[in-house]
Amino acid sequence: MTGRVPEHVAEALRRLGPCGDGWVAFSGGTDSTALLHAAATRADHPPGTLRAIHIDHGLHPDSLGWAEHCRRICDALGVPLVVRRLNLKPIHGASLEATAREARYCALADVLRPGDLMLTAHNQDDQAETLLLALLRGSGVHGLAAMPREAGLGRGRLVRPLLDVPRAVLEQYVRSFGLSWIEDPSNASLLMDRNYLRNSVLPLLRLRWPGLSVTLARSAGHCAEAAQLVDGVAAELLEACAGGHPGTLGIRALGSLELPHRKAILRLWLRRRGFVLPDTRHLARILDEVLPARADADPLVAWSGCEVRRYRDDLFALAPLPPPPGASRIPRAPGGMPPVLELPAGLGWLQWEDVSDGSEPAPTVRFGATGQSCRPSLMSRRRTLKNLFQEAGIPRWLRPYVPLVFSGDILIAVAGVCGCRDASRGPATSDVPQWRGHPWEDLALFRNRAE
Asked: CA–CA distance from 154 to each of 19, 20, 109, 213 (Å)?
């Protein structure tokens, strides 16, 4: 069959329709070599709309040579190639395979423009392996759905057109066209779970059940349909469980539901917020420790890239909090307070009009100052910072990050909350500083109070 595209591959590419601006994730292995060649030689492929990207993880001494091999293949096909070198380092206690996968998808997403497609060469056998791995890890229907054919990726879409194509067909393809490919020696290592399944377990299973990959892929499809039904029910209930701040859940509403519904809502909520889903243990801790905690408690459940906390009746999902800046000072620039003042530790910036008469010390910004009080208006009584934060509904775990503006040793404003007035000093000392660009802006905790 030299020079003829196998029907499996041809049909998979036909289903794509016009690709528009498309990318191929090109590792240089047999599968991605077959995909790149088939996509680049499509009869209806407009010249110049297909590109390839090669991710060099920097984990193998031959990786530079692999990148050069990919460049030669792309040059021969007339396909522009982008190479991204990641230079990953093993992280103690973390799976190197998972770390590399996460970094790889971030790099793929980074090159996509709105409407772009990223084609990957995952095949039917990959799908079977993914399902078995999920089963062995005790995953639910979302995990057992394995890899979706399409999903959002950055500003574009991730498409796996070859999920119905056996790996053997792709190997046959590259040989029939006389294409060269890379053999990654790590694929033979049995230390990684996927390689152990691929090289030791699945060959034995196929002796008894030759159609194993087709059957497991079909099961993954059934689980995907079940997952869609679960998400549909959870989406309807999620609206009724909205919390008092954007993107939060109401704990009373959530707690009134049956346990399976609570679990489904939490998973959908976290997925929509863009977080890695918790494993069974961490999900159980949210249900058993955070939801029933006292309203004035400060419970925390954290896993990779996510922290779930509560404040009063709201459940929050946040990126991990940075170390608090402490009592550092940020002096005013010479010539007056700038209209925008950058804050440390990724905490955004302050913007406000300094209405002092210039006879007072230049304002400074501190964090985590204790023992302070403030009079929000000339007609109000003086309140402690704790009282002000409680009245403004600022969670306890965010208070060390709130910028406090001082004139000398006198507190004149609490960013996003209030300015401080002092009857002995006449008119208002400062307006309320607008706090912008901080990590919790989308929760609208401070925005309305700062304007």
From this structure: 17, 17, 5, 30
